[in-house]
Structure formats: C-alpha cells, structure tokens
Amino acid sequence: MAEVTSLTKPGMNAILDVERIRADFPILNIKVGNKPLVYLDNAASCQMPQQVIDRLVYYQTAQHANVNRAVHYLSEVATLEYEKARRKVQHFVNAREDREIVFTSGTTDSINLVMHGYGRKFIKAGDEIILTTLEHHSNIVPWQMLAQEKGAIIRVVPINDAGELDIDAYKKLFNERTRFVSLIHVSNALGTINPVKQLITYARQHDVPILIDGAQAAPHMTVDVQELDCDFYVFSAHKLCGPTGIGMLYGKAKLLEAMQPFKGGGDMIESVTFEKTTYAATPHKFEAGTPPIAAAIGFGEAIDYLCTIGMDQIAAHELELLTYATDCINEIKGAKIIGTAAQKTAVLSFTLDGIHPHDIGTLLNEDGVAVRTGHHCAQPIMQRYNVPATSRASFAFYNTKSEVDALMAGIRNVQKVFL
C-alpha cells in the first residue's frame, strides 16, 4: 500500500504542500474533453486518495471475510480491522467510548436511525421538534415523517439575509413541549457555519436532546463531540476522502442504550426464539446484517490520511481559497453570492443575472470545471432567497488558486455566450 508522507511544508503555519497532496489523487489527472479537470464539487463528494484505494484493494485481496461470524483466520482479521476502523472514528470525533460509534450507510441513514430509534420511542402527539431553514432534506423529511405519524409539530428557526441563524428566534422556540432539536453544523448550500456550541448549550439548559448533522463540517474542521456536548453527531465517509455507502452515528451511550433498533436481522441479536428476541449490546444492536466491511476500513484509512495532513491546516487552506474566490467573483458584474455569513466553510453558491444555473454548469463543464447546480437538496433555502437554484463551487484541501482562476474564467465565458 502507498504510504502517507509529510504533506505540509516547513514553517510556523504548516502551509500545505498542495502539489504533493494532489499527486495522491489519480482522478485529478483526468481531462474533460481536452481540458484538465477542475473538480469543485467537493460538498457533494470528495475525491479519494491512492492510500485509501490501496487499502480497499488490500482488504479485498488479503483480508476479506464476514465479521463476527466465525473463528477462522480471515474472519478474525476482518473483524479486527472493522473494529479498528470504529476506534479510528471514535478518536477522530473524540468520543468517550468506541461503543458510542455506530456504522451506518451515511448521514441520511444515521438521521433516520435516530428518528426511528429515539423519535418513534419517545416523541408523542403534541411534542415539538426544532429544525432550521438551513437543513438538508435528509434532516427535514425524516422528522416530518415522524411528526405526521405521531402528531408532533415541526418548528423552524429562520435565517437572515446573510444565511445566518436567528439565535433569538431559536431560543424563543423552546417551551415545555420541545422534545428534540436536529440541526446542521455547516450548510451544504451556503457554507454557513452554525454556532453549534451555543445552540447545544441552550438545548442542554432545557434538557432537550440535540442531533448535529456534521456532513459538511467533519471534512473541514476538528470535531470534538465531548467539547460540543451534543447528544448525536452524524456524517458520511465520502465527504472526507472515504468510500461511499458508509457513515457514522455518534450517540451518547446512555441514549443509544435507551433506543430501540432501527433494523432487525443477523448480528444485532443476543438470542432469538419465536417467542422473543434479545438484542446485542450497543453499537451492534444497530448494525443488522453484514456490514459494509471494506467501506468501514476505507473510512478509517481516510481518517488516517486527513489526520496526517491536519484538520487545522485543511481549514486554513480552504478558508484562503474561499476568501480568494469571494474576492474574485465580487469583481464579476452580474454575479451574486448566495450566503454571505461571517463564518463559512469553503462553499461559494452564486447566481448570474439572466442565466439559469443549469446552463452555467453545462458551459462550465465544457471548460473542465465541475460545479454543482440545482437546489442542493435544500429547497427551503432556495425559497428563502427566492431563487430556483444556485451554482455551487465547493473547495477541498487539494484545490488551488489556479483552479479558482479557471472557475472565474469559465464564468466570464458563460456570460459571453448569454449576454
């Protein structure tokens, strides 16, 4: 397998050696037509380094077997590596125990697990659930389903024109009927970083459990669930250089123990008769059936890779890219940034006067520039800004200022075609 070497240049600020990092990502060498790929769709899915690819291949060629099923050599190795990956995730988010980490198929699956396992058990008719305008559909629809089933009520925190939560409005939503809060750490559509520590502290004062959707935060900043004191935290591996089809749910042990399983089947049981089933201990009672073993191991390898670079260094580089891109697009007449929060991750959502975002994306693709266009599974945000969609460029630690320049040149080319 390929080894991870130093990915920072010497110096006080540990500047990223971006060209060295880019060499780890074979997909960045491809061309779109005759143009080099400029991949700026990282909020949808980040690319995978060779180290993670090699780890997946090594597992499949030298370690593959089902876990927790047998005493033979390969099964023992696979089980060891699978649980080692769980501990890597535990340390990545600073959970107290590895049993507080549940492997899921991704962020959406994690939220649904909490909705079914906690919500369906504890939320009753008339209870209230607080969400925000910034939520991804995966953190809206499950709670709407629960509210419809139970007769509960959804309350929504508004945002200001910059795309920031109205904190006073959030506080006013709490009352004796508030039973759960679920909100995003970082907006996938705008890049807004919510003050989650403050929001969690207020929920804690009211003894209300809170889930944080960290799908867009975990790839870009240090996450410490103990310091945050959240009850649940969720994210996906493919957003942070890992495989698709694997994600995690962090839950405080006492809450996971109190929850009912989301799925039934093999490996999540202690004993089964036709009269009664007793469940396995946490986290295994939430991991029915054969888990995504290879993906979990790849997840762990991706965490190793990011930690070698350093999350603080990643955050600093991406902020520099965002600042540069913001300054550049503000010089383009007819371009408007959607979402101008004071605290943002490297997401640049924008519109161009008189040009539909889908046309923008199509023409940028001809220049080799990959951006996301549409409502970004966040239609309430689009409604808030009265736009049908936006074009979204999202940056990762392997992106460069020259790629930002390519994006800006592509935007100007789009305007030349339409205006």
Topology:
Layout: H1 18-22, E1 31-32, E2 35-36, E3 38-39, H2 50-62, H3 73-93, E4 101-104, H4 107-122, E5 128-132, H5 141-150, E6 153-157, H6 167-172, E7 178-184, H7 196-205, E8 210-213, H8 225-228, E9 232-236, E10 247-251, H9 253-258, E11 269-272, E12 277-279, H10 293-309, H11 311-329, E13 335-337, E14 347-352, H12 357-366, E15 369-370, E16 372-374, H13 379-385, E17 390-394, H14 401-418
Parallel strand pairs: 3-15, 5-6, 5-7, 7-8, 8-9
Antiparallel strand pairs: 1-2, 4-10, 9-10, 11-12, 13-14, 14-17, 16-17
Helix pairs in contact: 2-10, 3-10, 4-5, 11-14, 12-14
Describe the structure.
This protein is α/β, with parallel strands linked by helices. The protein has two domains: 18-48 and 310-418, Alpha-Beta Complex (Aspartate Aminotransferase, domain 1); 54-307, Aspartate Aminotransferase, domain 2 (3-Layer(aba) Sandwich). The protein is 39% helix and 16% strand. The chain contains 14 helices and 17 strands. The strands form five sheets. Strands 4-10-9-8-7-5-6 form a seven-stranded mixed sheet, with helices on both faces. It has a four-stranded antiparallel sheet with strand order 13-14-17-16, covered by helices on one side. It has a two-stranded antiparallel sheet with strand order 1-2. The longest helix is centred in the N-terminal third of the chain and has 21 residues, at 73-93. The radius of gyration is 22 Å and the shape is globular. The model is unreliable at 1-6 (pLDDT under 50).
